[in-house]
Amino acid sequence: MKLTQHEINDLIERLQKGETLPDDYKYKLFPVKQKEYELVYGGKMRREDILANEDGVFPVPLQIQKIYNGKREQWKDGWRNIIVFGDNLQFLKTIYENKDPLIKNKVKGKVKLIYIDPPFGTGDEYDGNQGQKGYSAKTKGAEFVEFLRRRLIVAKEILAEDGSIFVRQDYHFGHYVKLVLDEVFGKQRFINDFVVNRISKKGFANRTSFKPLKYPVSNDYVFWYAKTDNYYFDIYKKFIGKSKEKWHSMDVMDVNPKPRPRKILGKEMIAPFGRKWMYSQENIYIMEKQGLIRLNSKGTPQYKVRNQEFELLDTNWSDIAGYSFSTGYPTENSEELLERIIKSTTKEGDIVLDFFGGSGTTAAVAEKLNRKWITCDIGKLAFYTIQKRLLNIESSKSIENPKQKYGKPSKSFVSVNTGHYDLAKIFELKQQEYSEFVMNLFEVEPKKKTISGIQIDGEKKDGYNVILWQYWKFKESTVDEDYLHDLHSHIGAKAGKRVYI
Predict the structure, then answer these.
(1) Can you tell me the distance from the alpha carbon of 163 to that of 226, in angstroms, rounded to the nearest whole number?
(2) In angstroms, what CA-CA distances link 427 with 434, 440, 471, 472?
(3) How far is CA 136 from each of CA 141, 162, 379, rounded to the nearest angstrom?
(4) Among 468, 475, 466, 471, which residue's Cα sits nearest to residue 496?
(5) Rounded CA gap, 349 and 337, in Å?
(6) pLDDT per residue over 20-59, tens digit each?
(7) Residue among 16, 325, 371, 411 at smallest CA distance from 163
(8) Which of 60, 304, 362, 387 could make an S-S bridge to 354, C-beta 3.0–4.6 Å?
(9) What DSSP letter does each residue of 395-414 carry, written as one string?
(10) DSSP conformational letter for 208
(11) Cα 118 to Cα 102, 137, 173, 376, 420, distances in angstroms
């Protein structure tokens, strides 16, 4: 798409003034090859701009708030599980940047499973069972779709090459989210969508007077996408216990009817008209030796169905609870649901990430299944609910036998602040750690130099100089008007139009 002369003149003027270019110009100057189809809506940003932090959301330092169960055995490689308090997009971008010492080279490209149950864009507010503020789903419409899309774009970048992502949604925006997932991961990476329970149908018989009239909604959807075709999968087997002895007739429908005699228990037999024997003669002999074939009272051949303790699943998961109520947190996902997902797509020791942590079900089940885990939420109720749940995991139910308690304390984990910091802890850092923390927080590139006797510590992305206030030398001093006048008298215009402190 060509620029008009008016747009060219406007563009030159904006560049001369150092203004940010509108998205319309970016699409024309740097066109992106479109997918076969994609959602178009107001406020949609280019993937490249999101990863370049043009959305105004930047990576930030991670501040360890507290270490829990610190004396307990950690993973042999020194890994500690992580609960993060803060904006999940900031946190995802921090992982993507891969600079923070807490996670550097430990997470990016190594996450085997992401499970998220984000707000459903309903406009509702959700509170805990005692009235505590839970979380908000107030972001609606295109704003909600873009809110989720930006996070999915960064999430894809931190998945392992054989990793998977599962996203739970309901009928409000599930169909839009499916299109966004097709766009971000590629429709060829779509593996399955699962039907999971939402509510019980009981108690709705007398609700026909409610408006609008419709059937009660009983299910949500879970969409499964893989990063590549080389994703890890181990089919989940559902334990059903030993089945009773069963015998079935050996004849099945035949689309090309003709006599196909078989020798069964020493007698040559022809299947009824329009039917055929389901086993070859060789297999019949083998089954006879194993006692798996008999004649019933009418002389009809039957085969014995082997006892089965497990059955394979399909995509209808309505046989288990979709939600639970053990923590008092609203919309608490069930452990049975997460068990299936985690067992199917990860091995012991793999990293599982949930950046809409909520009640902490993903972290709790990952802990019980001996997986490493990271979870993040911006809500204080979620942050404290997850901590409490992990600290009390001993008394929660076992995965293998729900009638028994899990019985083991959690491995060591840390709670982390991102963007919401404890200033006292920052000022307790050693000089070098403090400098690195502040430089990372404000995205300053370290470049030491001296201008008229004043030490310059780095540069911002816009090229302006930065002075790091050395609070450890001047604990009783402040950056006041006199200091600024004195600084200006020394360096004046030598340091450029602007200096950050």
Answers:
(1) 6
(2) 7, 15, 9, 9
(3) 14, 33, 9
(4) 466
(5) 20
(6) 777 666 666 766 565 666 788 888 899 999 999 989 899 9
(7) 371
(8) 362
(9) GSBPSS-TTSB---PPPPEE
(10) T
(11) 26, 9, 11, 12, 21
The pLDDT tens digits of the residues spanning 317-368 come to 999 999 998 888 888 999 999 999 999 999 999 999 999 999 999 999 999 9
* Structure tokens, 465: 């100089």
- Helical (H) or strand (E) element with 174: helix 174-185
pTM: 0.73
Alpha carbon distance 375, 360 (integer Å):
8
184-195 in b/e form (b: 16+ CB < 10 A) is bbbeebebebbb
In whole angstroms, give the CA distance from residue 347 to residue 350: 6
Strand, helix or coil for residue 306? coil
Both structure tokens of 468: 């790091």
CA distance 59 to 93: 5
Phi first, then psi, for residue 439 (nearest 5°) are -60, -45
